[in-house]
Structures are given as structure tokens and as C-alpha cells.
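Design review, sub-item: ligand-bound model
Attendees: FS, YL, KQ
YL presented the inputs for the oxa(dethia)-CoA complex:
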Amino acid sequence: MKQIRAAIKGTGSALPRNKVSNAQLAMRVDTSDEWITERTGIKFRHIAEDDETTSSLAADAAKEALKSANMAASDIDLIIVATATPDQTFPATATIVQNIIGANGGVAFDVAAVCSGFLYAFSVAESMIRAGSATNALVIGSETFSRILDWEDRTTCVLFGDGAGAVVLCADDSGKGALATKLHADGAHNQLLYVDGGPSTTGTVGKLRMKGREVFRHAVVNLTNVLLETLESAGVVPSDVDWVVPHQANARIIDGTAKKLKLPIDKVIKTVDQHANTSAASVPLALDVAIRDGRIKEGDILVLEAMGGGFTWGASVVQY
Ligand code: UT7
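KQ shared the predicted structure:
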């Protein structure tokens, strides 16, 4: 019997209308284009307006992904939304998206693993597909981090942006699809990247707080280790990799990790300059950009990776 894997059949993304440059930010925050570009590689970020929410961006990205997969919403039996900025504490944003796109009746839930959320959601979806409990899944990363930023804190507010990316994952027996996925978490580092509020503690939404330098240090080490672990599990050596699609937090983290793995930097998809750090949305957003511009082609070996608050981190090796 042929092995069932979860294969990527379509991708889509959505960005808020308002694109904000570093120079525009420098008019309201004590910062400069020079500092942001040099330390992070970020040039622009999209900021949601009042009518743009995590669910509306997620639904727009999902519709694009369905279109590219040539599938209808009624074909979908699983929706997972990875987000740290849900529309409401409950219901799950995935159920709101399900209702907007008209995929009612299947399974729908959210996953909270912050910037690694897409990798966590992807892993759950591909496991459910392999186990036979889902056939066609929408895995979405969607965030409106602008709503949890402290706009008085220049050390964090310049780093993040809003957006959504979606992937249609389908049961497939052709040999392509997710070859190996590895996830990790270490709650000992909760206080290096967190939100200082919540329904069960302060009763408020809270604002993002980060000790950036320490997060940076852990990111390169954790990502390098999980990439090696996942490649080995997939039976893939770094020279077999066609494209790395990393979490887009900081160009220096992306370059540092590629260097440690001896991966040529021109094999790494970078959108951090245009989108900044969109948390759970960043990997599917970058994936969609590189598929649509023709860099990623059918049959390519991809490596997806992310690290974020918790800490959480993970990677997946996928044949597209
Ligand atoms: O997605 C989840 C994972 N998150 C990340 O991966 C983020 C990881 N961290 C980073 O990307 C980097 O640590 C940052 C970009 C956040 C900061 O870069 P850094 O090179 O580690 O800078 P730093 O925090 O050590 O700050 C250096 C200086 C400080 O000034 P002094 O104390 O040296 O005088 C800051 O006050 O830069 C100053 N600074 C700024 N200056 C202008 C901090 N933020 C800004 C700013 N504009 N926006």
C-alpha cells in the first residue's frame, strides 16, 4: 500500500492595505530607517486598519489558497488557524474563518505557539491527514500584532507587522508532501518574550514585551539544531535542499542560521524587508510569495522553520 502524506496543493496570502515604511515610523517613534535596516533588515510592515482583523486576513488568504489549489471551501474538512492575536478569546478564529469561507461542518480550531504557530499547526494537520482523520486541510497563520504592540516601546514596535498566509494540505500518495516535522518548546524562557496581560490574569489584552538580544541568541542555536534534526529524520542532506522558508524575524537570524548549516543564502526566501515579523503568518506568507514568483517549483525540497515565544520552535522538510 502506498504511504499517505500531506502535500501542499495551494497557497495564498493577505496583507493589510496600509504599508508603513521605516521613515514613516520614525515620525512617531524615536528610531531611524538606518537603525531598523542595519539591525533587522526590515524596510516595511503592513498595519491593519479597523476593518481588517485576524479572521478577515485569514479568510482572504484561505480563499486565495483554495483558488490556487482549484478547490472549493466545501472540500475542506479541517481548518487550523495559528495565531497569538485572535479576534476574541473565544470562539476560535478558525471557526470564524470557516463560517466566512463557507466550509462549515468540518473540524476547526486555533493553535497558540506564537511565531512557531504555523509549524505547530502544520504538524497537527499533517499528522491528522496521515492518520486518516482529515483529507483536505487549510492551515493558516494570521496575525494583527499591531494591536498588541506598545507603540511607546521602540525596541519592539518597529519589528512586527500584520498579515496572513494559508496553505491547502491534502492527502496524497504520490510520494511528495511533508517528509519530517520536529517541534520543541522550553517554558523556562517564558519571560523573554511574552504579553503582559490575559483573560485569566489581568483581564486585559496586554502588550508584547521582549528581551530581544537574548531571544536572538537562543534563536540561532535552536533553529540550527532543529533544522539538523529534521533534515536527518527526513533523510535529506543540506545540499539536497532547494529552498529554506524561514520565520522572518530578523535578516541576521536568517543569515546566521543559513551560514551555520552551510546553506547558500540565495536558497533562502527572505520577505522580512517587506513584511517585518508577522509571527505565525510569516512562513506561509513567504512560501506563497516564492511560489507565486516562480522560485519554488513542483518537486522542490523545502525546509520550513520558525522560533518564537514560549520558547517554541520547529521545522518541517516538505517535497512540494
Ligand atoms: O519572532 C520571535 C523571535 N523574535 C526575534 O527573533 C527577535 C530577536 N532579536 C532581535 O532581532 C534583535 O535583538 C533586535 C532587533 C530586537 C535588537 O537588536 P540588537 O542588535 O540586539 O540591539 P539591542 O537590543 O542590543 O540594542 C542596541 C541599542 C540600544 O542602545 P544602547 O543601550 O546600546 O545605547 C537600544 O536602546 O539600540 C537601541 N535601540 C534602538 N535604536 C533606534 C533599540 N531599539 C531601537 C530602535 N531605534 N527601534
